[in-house]
Amino acid sequence: MPSKLTLPKISELGGGDVREITKVNAAKSDIDEVDDLGPCIELQRLDLKDNVISDVASIGYATALTSLDLSKNAIESIKPLAALESMRVLNLSYNNITSIEPLAGMKALCSAVLNNNNIRDASPLQTLLKLNTIILSNNRVEVLDVRRLKGLKKLSVSGNKFRKCPEIGGCFNLKELRLNKNKLTSIPADVLSCAQLCILDVGGNILTDVDKLCVIKNLRFLRALNVQGNKFAVDDACVAMFKEWLPSLRVLDGSPVEGRHKRFLHGPSQQDSSGCFTAEGAREAKKRKVAKRKHPEGIAGSAPPPTTRISFTDDPAPSATPPVRTPPRETPTRDTPTRARRTRTTRPGADEPPPQDRKGKQSG
Length: 364
Fold this sequence. Notes:
two-stranded parallel ribbon; 14 strands
């Protein structure tokens, strides 16, 4: 049965006077109403996730709050939260919120978790210059400009209605960018300004050709890439191309890159006029390489193989002339010079030295 979060209950949860409590955890308590939090003048952290709260008017009086979790409730309006100007971490995910205009006054806000709502306009976030984390997944946002947020490190806008990538030029500290399940047809050159990017998710869009991702080839720190669910197939040629572009790549479409596909080298014929490796060129290079393995005597359009070669491994196609092996050079032993010094030449006609007894004296 739903209950009300009263001041005595807060005192019990916080273990002290409501005027001195700094932290309260009332998650998963089947709460549908909250008492006036005005007396909680020192309350900084409040966890009310996974309840049935719909009205947040009383929470707006706790002006000292810096961390508030109201995820998984039944909230539609957050207008009373506009008074929380000290807020730094705010979680409003899994509600029915349609407008985030009250957040525009939270100038100290660092993390905004707003996924799984009905938000259409995310422009109030564009003026919060201290934001380092924005999670807007599964909403109805179509446009977003975060170029002024120089400290932004994580941006997730998956499951929205973007036809054009959010404006991210100038986000030099961005490390994680999630754009999956939108309607993107290309990736803009703005992504090159995010030189520190480590995670990029563009799966589930309508990218028709892997060559449209050519812009990411200079992201030297990218470790995880997801392109699954677009209009092109990720075959061995694509994997080899991504590895050529991204030397730090470790995970592709959720699986480790190493061991998943065999890498082959790109030749000059795989580049277009701009010097970008193309998937078509990579596939052609792979076909030529496979054909050369099957027909070592030569294929059309390629130079004939050498008549002799030296191999140090078990080769299924042995060379015409066996390798010439040079015998190892004889290395003199340590005692060789000693024996040479002890060898004496006997003069012609000289008598042999008399034999010696055990004590070293001459006999006779």
